[in-house]
Design brief:
Blueprint lengths: L14 E8 L5 E8 L28 H4 L3 H26 L3 H17 L7 E5 L7 E4 L5 E3 L14 E5 L2 E5 L8 E5 L2 E4 L13 E5 L4 E5 L10 E4 L4 E4 L12 E3 L2 E5 L9 E5 L2 E5 L6 E2 L2 E4 L5 E4 L2 E2 L5 E10 L2 E12 L3 E5 L2 E5 L3 E7 L5 E9 L8 E5 L6
Antiparallel strand pairs: 1-2, 3-4, 3-28, 4-5, 6-7, 7-8, 8-9, 10-11, 11-12, 12-13, 14-15, 15-16, 16-17, 18-21, 19-20, 20-22, 21-22, 22-23, 24-25, 25-26, 26-27
Keywords: Membrane, Transmembrane, Transmembrane helix
């Protein structure tokens, strides 16, 4: 019988032979294997890892004792596979090596950005008060307040207007200069749109971003039934929607359980709170005070905060209270450092920034949204009610 492996004569003990294995990169990997003669039996592991040569019999058959020595082949097969894997991995590492520092740096940058996002020192607001030429840029930590330049048709263009974001753009609605106007801030300029409000809203109305910022709800006003009416703006058109059951002149708008809500009224001086759903307005628990000219801000836990305002029950007295509507109950959770009213407020990075008629204050919350601290970070440059607020960068329109 002709053996498929080339026959090798047995040499002396400790004879060495060399096996060549072709790697994935076509380079020869030399493995030296010491061959020992054990009990006059010599087993050769052939280069194709399949053949045996038994020297103890004449017909080149494999005995049972030979079969017991198959560990040689098993080890060589394992080594072959292992080196294939190593060769592939080395190739990948060499290919990616120029990019590894950038990948690591990118991960570190992302982690750092997540940690510092929303810190007061990194937050800035454009503030447009009664008069456009008094606009300024305010830092969240109170370290800076510098003038900003905003262009508008008239200097009192934003006076008594309401504001909200629609598709990421700042819009103002109504006001003293034109009770039906809608204007959009673009490149430091307030540009009036051709679309207009359905109702005259010159004073005491409110606006709120809804439907994940795609639309704005504009409600209320200073006279008659307008004090109950609402409409929705989608960026190009306005459409009327449900009217509230109660008047909410200076009652403001905020989100409670992800639905619009309003509290109190200026001239009727009631304590009524309501929320708007897909089927209309429904009652919420009355506020403990006959409140108006406050600010409403939603927390992520779906509760609603009411900040400052006037208490008509004791004669138009400015308030410092911070109230929370949660699980259908009103509770006072803290107070401002300085009583104030007619303020605009915005919630960013676990802090509420409150721009009141007189003062600018920051309310800091824990990760579980418990009130932790109140700090005064500035003062208004004049007596301005409900200034327009817009979060910006540190050099916006300066």
């Amino acid at each position: 019988m002709k053996n498929s492996c080339e026959e090798r004569r047995a040499g002396p003990s400790n004879e060495f032979y060399q096996m060549n294995i072709l790697s994935e990169s076509n380079e020869l990997l030399n493995i030296e294997k010491q061959e020992n003669v054990v009990n006059q039996y010599q087993i050769h592991c052939c280069a194709n890892l399949q053949c045996w040569k038994a020297n103890n019999n004449s017909n080149n058959t494999v005995t049972n004792e030979d079969k017991g020595r198959t560990s040689c082949l098993d080890k060589l097969k394992g080594i072959h596979v292992m080196f294939k894997i190593i060769a592939v991995l080395v190739g990948i590492i060499i290919t990616l090596s120029p990019f590894i520092p950038k990948i690591v740096a990118g991960i570190e940058t992302t982690e750092t950005t997540m940690e510092i996002e929303g810190l007061p020192s990194d937050v800035f607001f454009l503030v447009i008060p009664f008069y456009v030429d008094k606009s300024y840029l305010q830092s969240g930590d109170g370290s800076s307040q510098i003038s900003a330049t905003i262009n508008a048709p008239d200097n009192d263009y934003a006076r008594s207007s309401a504001h909200a974001l629609v598709n990421g753009k700042l819009h103002i609605f109504g006001g003293d200069s034109d009770s039906k106007k809608i204007a959009r801030l673009e490149d430091c300029t307030l540009n009036e749109l051709t679309v207009r409000l359905n109702e005259e809203r010159s004073d005491g109305h409110a606006a709120l971003s809804i439907e994940n910022g795609k639309k704005a709800l504009i409600c209320f006003g200073s006279s008659g039934e307008i004090r109950r009416t609402c409409e929705i703006f989608d960026g190009s058109t306005t459409v009327s929607t449900f009217s509230a059951d109660w008047t909410h002149y200076y009652g403001r708008l905020g989100l409670y359980k992800n639905q619009p809500a309003s509290v109190g009224c200026y001239d009727y001086s009631h304590q009524k709170a309501e929320t708007l759903s897909a089927t209309g307005w429904t009652s919420l628990p009355d506020h403990p005070k006959r409140i108006s000219r406050h600010s409403l801000v939603a927390l992520e836990n779906q509760s609603l905060l009411l900040i400052g305002g006037w208490d008509f029950g004791i004669g138009y007295v400015r308030q410092s209270g911070i109230w929370q509507l949660k699980d259908e109950n009103w509770n006072k959770i803290g107070q401002l450092l300085q009583a104030d009213y007619a303020g605009s407020a915005i919630y960013i990075g676990r802090s509420i920034y409150y721009f009141g008629y007189y003062s600018i204050q920051r309310l800091d919350f824990t990760e579980t949204e418990e009130l932790q601290n109140v700090a005064q970070i500035g003062n208004q440059q004049g007596n301005y009610k409900y200034p327009v607020l817009f979060q910006t960068g540190s050099n916006y329109c300066i």
